[in-house]
Amino acid sequence: MNHFFSRFILSLVFTSSMTLGSLAQTAELSTADSLFNNQKYTEAFEKYENIFQENYASLAMLTRMAFIQEGLGNYADALYYLNLYYLKSSDKAALVKMREIAEEHNLSGYEYSDFKFFENFVRKNQNLITLCLIAFSIFLLAYSLRKTKKEERPMISVALQALTLALILVVNNKVFLKESGIIQKNQSILMSGPSAAAEPIQVIDQGNKVFILESDELWSKIEWEDSEAFIRNKNIRKL
Questions:
Q1: How far apart are CA 21 and CA 44, in angstroms?
Q2: Each residue of 38-67: pLDDT tens digit?
């Protein structure tokens, strides 16, 4: 009984702290929005950044952060927040804006295609798609077992089952979805290997968007101009 009561108290304290934290976050967001509406953009961004660091970002907040950073001339940061907004919303207007900034500063990685739009749709709905595929897989399994009991060969359902399992692997193992990032520093050096002693390949500026193939504590392997290169993690901001 005492053990149950202790767990109940701990649960109540945890829930209360979460609620208070959410209320404080809402109040800070309201303050930030008020500062933004009064054109106090620097102060507003500081508030938004505090909220962002707490792993919260509404769509409206991301667009306002991008607007502020573009106005300050920090186009790499503006592109970062616009990318996050697009990943959450799939809003093609964000793609148009990113392309405008990219063309103005001669940046790569912002080319649009229907495949990229579909890729982002899958990324945004990954959990739902996975659940639907698992449910379909279970249905196919039950159907195949029923056919087998009737001494029939469920060839079509077996083929569909294999395809469904393959899709589940693709969606959840990043075979189809590639992680990307934005170069955050000018004069970032791309290397031929994950070492300061490796041969330099090219120097690129901030704002370029790249696909990340793999990462460790210090280096990331990226795709750059149809080849592979390595860059320091401190020079890239992952999306």
A1: 20
A2: 899 999 998 888 888 888 888 889 999 999
User: Of 54, 112, 105, 106, which Cα lies nearest the Cα of 83?
Assistant: 112
Question: Which tens digits make up the pLDDT trace of 133-188?
Answer: 888 888 888 877 777 777 667 677 778 888 888 887 877 766 556 788 899 888 88
Is the per-residue pLDDT at 71 higher than 70? yes
Give 105: exposed, middle or buried? Use CB within 10 Å, 0-12, 13-18, 19+. middle
The Cα 51–Cα 25 span in angstroms is: 7
pLDDT in tens, 186-234: 888 898 889 888 898 889 888 989 888 888 888 989 888 888 889 998 9
- Rounded to whole angstroms, the Cα distance separating 219 from 221 reads 7
How far is residue 145's CA from residue 153's CA, in Å, rounded to a whole number? 10
